Amino acid sequence: MRRALLLVPGRTSRQGVAANLGKDTAEYREATETVEVCAEDLEAIGCRDGDQVRVTSAHGSVVLVARARPPADLPPGLAFVAYGTPSSRLMGGETHGTGMPDSKGIPVWLEPAAR
């Protein structure tokens, strides 16, 4: 089962602290290899908090660990991934001369990762 969502990547405070330790640390990888979604969206695809899910955009696909959030924290229909290699694989290369690709409101599909 798949569910259409909008991806809104960004930085997290934990990611910033982990970056000081290095991008090859477990802390940094955990911050950038997690997708946060509303618990309702996760349940709709038959997954639970901590399951691996596939996030696919028109530009690429990545497998991430899902973290369920209550609707008050993250409304249904949105997915959050911290900036890093996985989120970059979901963005296109067009920067409009800014050096930063479009990264907000990217249509994505969320589905269980192959089991």
From TrEMBL:
Q: What is this protein called?
A: Molybdopterin dinucleotide-binding domain-containing protein
Q: Which Gene3D superfamilies match?
A: 2.40.40.20
Molybdopterin dinucleotide-binding domain mapped to chain residues: 5-87
Q: Which one Pfam family would you cite for this protein? A: Molydop_binding
Query: From what superkingdom does this record's organism come?
Result: Bacteria
Spell out the residue ranges making up region: Disordered: 91-115
GO molecular function, a single term = molybdopterin cofactor binding
